[in-house]
Amino acid sequence: MNIGGLCHRNPITVGRVDELNKAAQLMRAHHIGYLVVIEADTVDGRQRPVGVLTDRDIVITVVARETDPRSLCVGDIMTPQPVTVSETDSVEKTLREMRRVGVRRLPVVGKHGELVGIVSIDDVLDFLAGQLQNLAASIRNERLIEGTVRP
Is pLDDT at 148 greater than 80 in this prediction? Predict the structure, then answer.
């Protein structure tokens, strides 16, 4: 399974120059805590990730410092040059990358570097839980078959 099959497609995004309040409102409206900051490539127009913004970024950088959020735009507090994974990367490679940079979510890009989705630890855990259920069902089925074939 590659990560493109697990990621959430069409993620909610913002621009670098968008108002921080707008970003926070998007997070609230969509019940998410992570936005990918995108810009169109000047050559091909594809939307590429140039940063990420989390609810934690807003709390630590703005609220805790008592900064007026209306005075800031997304680019002022986003994490620039985000680590990304390719939609063709394996689950294992993605988990290694998440561990290496200490994050729970990563933007997923296509073959031209364009944003195609977001993958989270929750997405991977759901996939792995399904695989474990398949293994458990296989063991149960083996017992049933053996009990029928060799009573």
Answer: no
Task: Write the CB contacts of 118 (distance below 8 Å, at least 6 apart in sequence).
Answer: 7, 8, 11, 34, 36, 105, 106, 107, 108
Q: Where are the domains of the chain?
A: 3-149
Q: What is the pTM of this model?
A: 0.85
Q: How far apart are CA 80 and CA 37, in angstroms?
A: 9
Single-letter residue type at 140: R
Per-residue pLDDT tens for 54-82? 999 999 998 888 888 888 999 999 999 99
Q: Which CATH number fits domain 3-149: 3.10.580.10, 3.90.950.10, 3.40.50.970, 2.60.40.1260?
A: 3.10.580.10
CB atoms within 10 A of CB 6: 18
